Amino acid sequence: MPELKTMERQIVLVLTLDPGSSLTKIVYQIVYNCWEKSEPKILLMEPQVIEVSQELIEAYEAQRLTSADPENEAWIECEGEFYAVGFLAQKQFYAHAGLNELKYERAVLKLMAAVGAIAEREGLPDSFSVALASLLPYKEWRDCEKFERSATNALSNFCFRGKAFSLPLQVFECKPEGAGLVLTRGRKLGLATKERVILVLMMGYRDVSFLLFERGKIVDGGTSPKHYGLVLLVERVQQRTSGQDSEPLLRAIHRAAMAKKPGKDKQKLFQELVRSKKPQHQAEEIAQIMEAVRISRLEYWSILSGWLKSIIPTGVDEVVIGGGTAECFRSELKSHFATIDISWAAELEEDVRLAFNLSPEKDTLCLRLADVYGLSRSLLKKIEGGVGLVRKI
Q1: Is 321:211 a contact under the CB 8 Å cutoff?
Q2: What is the Cα–Cα distance from 223 to 203, expressed in whole angstroms?
Q3: Helix axis angle, 246-258 relative to 279-311, nearest 10°?
Q4: Which residues pair with 176 in a beta bridge?
Q5: What is the 3-state secondary structure (H, E, C) of the chain?
Q6: How confident is the model at residue 192, as a pLDDT?
């Protein structure tokens, strides 16, 4: 990629992307002439992506009565193919989250949608550059060169909601999930980083992955052999209940895990899952769901903790834990790592809350944004310093 000195006198969209399987998380800033910059902002999009025909897009456009925010009506055209992305893909075309698909391929489509939505939201001119840092699971991190080529080609010629864009990808950086946390933690520890063995554990919706740092360098890393993220818990509950959809079930499981209420009060958290129309059956149905969640949590933690024992070497001084699933199992993780120092999201949660003015009700969102936010700060520092970027930590 070109060195940063070529970016002078340009408008640059500095964008950090976490193409998650439960939520696409984007932190962005606009840099003018390499020194003046906007405040950081977040853009959140549903994770769904689906290829559709031009005819279906035209039919949708013809029948809609009002105009929503661009990220909620996101569709793109690239190389003659049309895709709905995010909320539009989820609600209009019933797209799935693509848990078995390569993340970087879906990330390219999400990138185009995000860039187009931000350009429309911020009123950017037709001509600007993109500086991108993105996170990928460790097992897909080796695809970063394919990701760069695909992203470069896609941004050079695509349409967002009918508007054509041709944008240079001026800067590209790809890191494994957890890199934003360990880079932040490394800055806080300073030289002490090289004296500690640090395990970074990222607990997402699809997978759980880890990075092992020794003397400041990655010495090992990996991703759970199957989908050991929270999706596994959701699937186990579905097997023990009748006709439950994954999205509302996930919301209820998460609310119950976060709620500091006695068991009886928690029944209200599962009310939206009730399918029976008869009041005398509803209480029984809620009790069945709650019991399924309880047993499935025990089963899930048994599976996950067994895998954790198999990957954690002796001599680890500190574990940095991130990802939304971690919040649901905070007490179990504390017990599991009782003899090891724990850094929750590299202490970035409060920084995220203040940066984006999030309410206390958004605690879990702060945790989920910590990795991408940490990476965004690293990328911006390099751009401000005019330093060429490197691909590996």
Answers
A1: no
A2: 10
A3: 80
A4: 136
A5: CCCHHHHCCCEEEEEEEEECCCCEEEEEEEEECCCEECCCEEEEECCCEEEECHHHHHHHHHHCCCCCCHHHCEEEEECCEEEEECHHHHHCCCCCCCCCCCHHHHHHHHHHHHHHHHHHHHCCCCCCEEEEEEEECHHHHHHHHHHHHHHHHHHHCEEECCEEECCCEEEEEEEECCHHHHHHHHHHHHHHHHHCEEEEEEECCCCEEEEEEECCEEEEEEECCCCCCHHHHHHHHHHHCCCCCHHHHHHHHHHHHHCCCCHHHHHHHHHHHCCCCCHHHHHHHHHHHHHHHHHHHHHHHHHHHHHHHHHCCCCCCEEEEECHHHHHCHHHHHHHCCCCEEEEHHHCHHHHHHHHCCCHHHHHHHHHHHHHHHHHHHHHHHHHHCCCCCCCC
A6: 78
Confirm if 358 and 366 have CB atoms less than 8 A apart.
yes
Which pLDDT tens digit goes with each residue over 112-161?
A: 999 999 999 999 998 899 999 999 988 888 889 999 999 999 999 999 99
Q: Specify the pLDDT at position 6.
A: 46
Residue closest to 373 by CA, chosen among 358, 360, 390, 385: 358
**CB-neighbour burial class of residue 330 (10 A; exposed 0-12, middle 13-18, buried 19+):** middle
Question: How far apart are the C-alpha atoms of 270 and 140, rounded to whole Å?
Answer: 36
Look at strands 197-203 and 318-322 and give their pairing.
Answer: parallel
pLDDT for residue 282:
85
| Nearest-angstrom CA–CA distance, 204 and 139 | 14
- Give pLDDT, residue 8: 44
Residue 142 to residue 136: CA distance in whole angstroms: 9
Amino acid 294: pLDDT:
94
Q: Quote the tokens at residue 189.
A: 């520890």
Ranges under pLDDT 70 in the chain: 1-9, 34-35, 260-265, 361-362, 385-393
